[in-house]
Amino acid sequence: xxxxxxxxxxxxxxxxxxxxxxxxxxxxxxxxxxxxxxxxxxxxxxxxxxxxxxxxxxxxxxxxxxxxxxxxxxxxxxxxxxxxxxxxxxxxxxxxxxxxxxxxxxxxxxxxxxxxxxxxxxxxxxxxxxxxxxxxxxxxxxx
Length: 143
Known about the structure:
143 residues; 4-stranded antiparallel beta sheet; 35% strand; disordered N terminus
């Protein structure tokens, strides 16, 4: 429970702090720019966190131009910040697609089959954060 509380506080601080009230130890202003505040996934589902033994994993992804990831789903919350490139994510169950570019924040759909394609000419670079049950995997490939 302590880990969930600490994670929630860090996320809240990151989303709601402004440059007006953020100072470093020498009273020099620190600029904090909120990037996103979401309560639902890309497909409109409410965000729900794992209920036990929560682990936070942070990864960087690089997807080559033209590359398409296999159809997959995530049983736990996954968040991604697009550092570079243009990524099209398609929910293969509904056919609905969203396109994300540099600076966008993605709250991935949970438990729904989807795939992503780099539709740009540059590599897509993502900072990915998973919140999952300890020892579990957060990506399931479709057979």
